[in-house]
Design a protein that fits this description.
With 318 residues, the chain is α/β, with parallel strands linked by helices. The chain is built from twelve helices and eleven strands.
């Protein structure tokens, strides 16, 4: 019988971020699975802040998280209902180099993999408008908006890996939940494309030609995305580099600011066990909507061994 995976306990996000940086000395990437409200976004910012403190104010992390998505604001033009566009924050350092780098073609290449609309960026007003066929300035969904933002990030990452002078400072990528509001098909596609990008990152070389891998942390609450990432990074396509990586389940077992990391090298789907443990704690207090939702999730994960044939049956079992 295999020994149970060791659980590491951390009493602050700072010590947890320090652990991740320590792991990245030996691995190209760290994958984290965690439920919402565990502190994934705050952890990504603490990771970034830790780099700035160690660099005496110089950043070393390019991140994608909820703060990144907040740099883009949708305008519906309630007055005339015709000037619908996405407004970019021109003060953002993340977006400042978009015009200079002329990334429109790279963004469009990524976008064509996930969506069937096109875009135009006005760098004078920092507006993005969208079109489809003969329709101009169309309204796009929240999921489509998020995938467009993700495509911008991927295009910038390509520049980082290529060694563009403007991104020489980037030593780490920290990506938190890149697939919010996406359907399963796009979640899988994003995971596969991201795995391909991480293989390039692992093979990066510096100006002198010496190995200089770009280290990455990826966190998500999306079980399908997490498992596709695990599977993709575990294989080594012919002619491509292997991505050495660690996998963890991040949890707040008591609901307080105490965090645990549990290795998931052999059991990427084991997180339903933690769900059962949390259900037990919830049941002792109250039967809430969240408790019912979690019961549904466990039934759905275990449906091959249960009588549940669809999610409706899971609701009845919960």
């Amino acid at each position: 019988m295999r020994d149970a995976p060791k659980i590491h306990l951390y009493r602050s996000l700072t010590t947890l971020a320090t652990r991740l940086r320590s792991d990245l000395r030996d691995f190209h990437s760290v994958l984290l699975y965690a439920y919402n409200r565990t502190g994934k976004t705050r952890l990504s910012m603490e990771f970034k802040k830790l780099g700035k403190r160690k660099g005496n104010g110089t950043a070393d992390t390019l991140y994608f998280n909820a703060y990144t998505e907040d740099l883009f604001i949708w305008e519906n033009d309630l007055d005339s209902d015709c000037d619908r566009h996405l407004q970019l924050n021109s003060k953002s350092a993340f977006l400042k180099l978009l015009a200079e780098l002329a990334l429109d073609l790279s963004i469009a290449e990524y976008l064509s993999r996930y969506a069937d609309f096109e875009f135009d960026i006005d760098y004078t007003s920092w507006k993005v408008t969208f079109r489809k066929g003969d329709e101009e300035q169309i309204k796009i969904s929240r999921g489509e908006q998020n995938i467009f933002i993700w495509c911008i990030f991927m295009a910038i990452c390509e520049q980082v890996i290529a060694g563009h002078l403007s991104y020489q400072w980037v030593k780490y990528l920290y990506i938190d939940d890149p697939i919010s509001s996406l359907d399963d098909n796009n979640a899988i596609a994003v995971a596969c494309d991201l795995a391909g990008l991480l293989r390039k990152a692992a093979a990066r070389r510096d100006m002198a030609g010496s190995p200089d891998p770009l280290r990455t942390v990826i966190s998500s609450h999306h079980a399908l995305f997490f498992n596709v990432m695990c599977n993709e990074l575990s294989r080594r396509p012919e002619g491509q580099n292997k991505v050495d990586h660690k996998r963890y389940f991040l949890q707040q077992p008591t609901g307080e600011r105490v965090y645990t990391l549990r290795a998931t090298d052999d059991t990427p789907y084991f997180h339903h066990i933690a769900t059962l443990a949390e259900l037990d704690r919830c049941a002792k207090r109250t039967r809430s909507i969240r408790t019912t939702s979690m019961r549904c999730e466990v039934c759905w994960r275990r449906r091959p061994a249960s009588s549940a044939r669809n999610f409706s049956a899971c609701i009845l079992l919960a």
